[in-house]
Amino acid sequence: MAPAIDPPQTVEWQGKKVPVWPVPTIDYAQLLSQDPAEVDKVLNACLEEGYFNLDLSGIDGRRMLGDQQETLKLMHRFFEAPIEAKNEFGLISSHLGYEPVGSRTGAFGAGTKDGYEMLKVSRDEIQRGSPKVPTPIKNNGDLQVLENAIGSCNTITKVILSALSTGMNLTGASRFENSHRNDRPSTTTLSMMHYLPSDETGNKKVGHQKHTDISSLTLLFSEQWGLQIRPPGTCGAREMGFVAPKPGCAFVHVGDSLRFASGMKMQSCIHRVVPFNPTEHRYSIAYFLRAEDDTMFVDSEGRYVTAGQWHDEKFKAFTDPWMWQAMAPKSMILGGMKEAGEDDPSGEVPAFMSNPAVVKEDVKEIAIQA
């Protein structure tokens, strides 16, 4: 086996040096065996950073890596289909269906829309054997690929939850996995995302805005650069920096629901996606493990809310016009996570955002939606 190559500490992006943040690596095989040292390591990662790489290269994780490659093949077939076929059912619900490019705010906030299209498949529907998926991927082989991927992701995230419960000395009903049972309704979703090259979307449709996830845990697969995170409580926390893709690993991060369930002890990862190479098509697979819909917790504003209610409220915030998002409390988009500074000094804001015509266009959009 070739020796591991450490990622660079910085990379050139948009004419400047941007940090590449270090990420702890957790061994899935040891976690599956509930190795005490690995349990402590994953707990500390969630308490201190809110993210880690999960090494799946051992015998227990390789099946998921194979499922990832099969899912990528399916994604290429699906996203190359005509828009009419991809959008056969549209967005059936917030966690199910197809979202075209430009449905949400983009990576650079004001005046931008996202630069990706996404297909979301519900775990609950896959379990029932009746998933609503568009015709381009409706044959039995494709459905089996989706079922395999969701099954593998579900197992992996439950193993992580169990380890975190053990690490926090939780017992009985208070263990995290006991509010994530497969037979109870939830918005757990497999999301497949295709980021288009900038020359195809224009400079007003770029990436994915800065946010925390609605999930308890997010299991993310991408072989390409573009993911940026803002580490909590570190010297450079004001600056967004890249995560280097690591072969054989998934990037895992804590979402709002698990942070709330832990009594705010765990860190929910602030992240976004930017066009690292604006000429390439970027593909990523995200499994959002979410708590049962009726799970109750106290959110970042001190409210008693259910997991289902938090999901619906935050999804609406994601799809609101950027000016509404700017006026709303940050607790929703960022899950109550505090940033080191109000301004992002990395200087990546496009010049067109200062154009009054852009602001006028978005004000018109708000008026239409109202």
TrEMBL record:
Keywords: Iron, Metal-binding, Oxidoreductase. InterPro entries: DIOX_N (IPR026992), IPNS-like_FE2OG_OXY (IPR044861), IPNS-like_sf (IPR027443), Iron_ascorbate_oxido_reductase (IPR050231), Oxoglu/Fe-dep_dioxygenase_dom (IPR005123). GO terms for molecular function: metal ion binding; oxidoreductase activity. PANTHER family: 2-OXOGLUTARATE (2OG) AND FE(II)-DEPENDENT OXYGENASE SUPERFAMILY PROTEIN-RELATED. This is Clavaminate synthase-like protein. It holds the Pfam family 2OG-FeII_Oxy. Belongs to the iron/ascorbate-dependent oxidoreductase family. It comes from the Eukaryota. One of its GO terms (biological process) is small molecule biosynthetic process. Residues 185-291 form the Fe2OG dioxygenase domain.
